[in-house]
Amino acid sequence: MTNESIANYLLRWLGNNPAAYPQLDDKWPVIFADMLFYSIPVFFIVLFIFPFFWLWLKKRKLSLKNFGIAIVQSIGLIILGIIGLFFLYSFMLGQIAQQIN
Fold it and tell me: How far is 18 from 8, CA to CA, in rounded Å?
C-alpha cells in the first residue's frame, strides 16, 4: 500500500471524499483534524474513569466516601480537560493568525 492509498482509505473511513483533496499534502491535515475531533469524547471518558481505576489499582474499599471522592476527582479532571482544550484551541488560533500575517 502506498501512502496515498492509505490516506484515501482513511478519508473514506472518516466520511470524507478523497477526490476533494487532490494532493497528498492536503489529505493528512484533514485526517488528523477529524481523528482529533472524534477522539475528544474518548478523552473525557478516560478522564472520568481514571479515579475509579486508581481506586481499583490501589485495592481500596469502594465505600460511599471513596466513591464520592472519586466523583469529585472525576469532575475536576473533566474541568481541567475542558480548560486544557480551550487553551489548546486558543494557541492554535494564534498560530493560524501568525501564519496568515
Answer: 5
CA distance 29 to 84: 21
Residues 6+ apart with CB under 8 A from 48: 74, 77, 78
For the chain, the distance separating the N- and C-terminal CA atoms, rounded to the nearest angstrom, is: 39
Q: Which helix (H) or strand (E) holds 59?
A: none
Q: Read off the pLDDT of residues 71-101 as tens digits, 9 standing for 90 and up.
A: 999 999 999 999 999 998 899 899 989 888 7
Q: Which whole-number Å values give the CA distances from 15 to 5, 26, 34, 66, in the listed order?
A: 15, 16, 9, 43
Contacts (Cβ under 8 Å, ≥6 apart) of 61 = none
Neighbours of 90 (CB within 10 A): 10
